[in-house]
Q: What sequence folds into this?
């Protein structure tokens, strides 16, 4: 049976975006299935007493350079959004609603949301922006609009976030395979080696 | 003319230790020279308002696992020291004194200090421990003992640390080549690609 990789991320995370562009290729090479798990990382940032790199002296400038350098190295289009970070609860709700209906379509929406934010500088924190992006993929706007107010969908996002915290997921991107945790886009090489070798 | 890689680290940094075991091989592959630059990272940790990973919930457990996993992956012996982090000013002074006399010997001492701490759990924060390790490499104990109290050597460590901060070096390991900064053991692959291709 093929392994499952849980891929945790926040839609506001630039390194999460980079991984979103690469994780399915990695899974294909490893004959794995990926479960995409967007969550609200703000909760765990508080628990771990951290703040976004952009708010830390020195690390702010460096992380911008590092992101652009990584993106160019991997051939991924990337532009630092003008507003950062942003609230991603609407994007998460849209994702978990669609996942109930069509898992692959939900991943497609996730990729489209990431690209809208990290290439086109679109404010995916806003409901109408998310609905418009989804409409571009053929997703019914009225259905999605209703889903964004649905109590069970709101709860699904809370559950995803609480579940991540309980499993000590504290970053984005964050991968789990065989109960083994890998934090960061820069651990994808190690993740792939782990899966291919069965660990060490 | 071959390029120079500046390799900044704190003797108390486990990822710095991992890099110290690999950086000269990387340099050989790239026809580069490495300048080892130990410094006291505590200063810049304060400026960037950070604390060691081991003092952060969740990240503490993860970073221990990640370190061991990385070390095993790369075939580097590693044991988490019983006391961590430690003061590294004595180790830095020994390094900068010896560097004035014999650069290669100074690197040899740096590697021996790292290994003593991260394999043998020796307290390299202590003067007598550093002197004993140096003696094992044929370094005169009386000369080193005198050097550790030398005003100009003390100043050399302060200068190295101030210089690092001025250049916005904020981590360990931290590499600089062609004014391009690379932070973290996990950026060594990118560093090597950068040197070999001339950057992108």
A:
């Amino acid at each position: 049976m093929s392994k499952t990789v849980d891929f945790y991320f926040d839609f506001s995370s630039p390194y999460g975006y980079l991984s979103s562009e690469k994780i399915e290729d990695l899974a294909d090479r490893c004959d794995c299935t990926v479960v995409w798990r967007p969550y609200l990382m703000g909760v765990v940032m508080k628990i771990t007493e951290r703040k976004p790199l952009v708010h830390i002296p020195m690390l702010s400038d460096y992380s911008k350079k590092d992101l652009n350098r990584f993106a160019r190295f991997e051939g991924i289009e990337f532009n630092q959004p003008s507003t950062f970070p942003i609230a991603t609860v609407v994007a998460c709700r849209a994702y978990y609603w669609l996942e109930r209906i069509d898992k692959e379509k939900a991943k497609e929406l996730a990729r489209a949301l990431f690209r809208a934010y990290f290439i086109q500088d679109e404010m995916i924190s806003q409901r109408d922006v998310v609905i418009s992006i989804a409409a571009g993929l053929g997703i019914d706007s009225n259905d999605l609009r209703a889903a964004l107010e649905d109590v069970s969908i709101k709860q699904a996002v809370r559950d995803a976030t609480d579940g991540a915290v309980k499993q000590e997921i504290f970053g984005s991107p964050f991968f789990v395979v065989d109960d083994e945790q890998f934090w960061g886009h820069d651990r994808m090489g190690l993740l792939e080696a782990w899966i291919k070798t069965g660990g060490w």
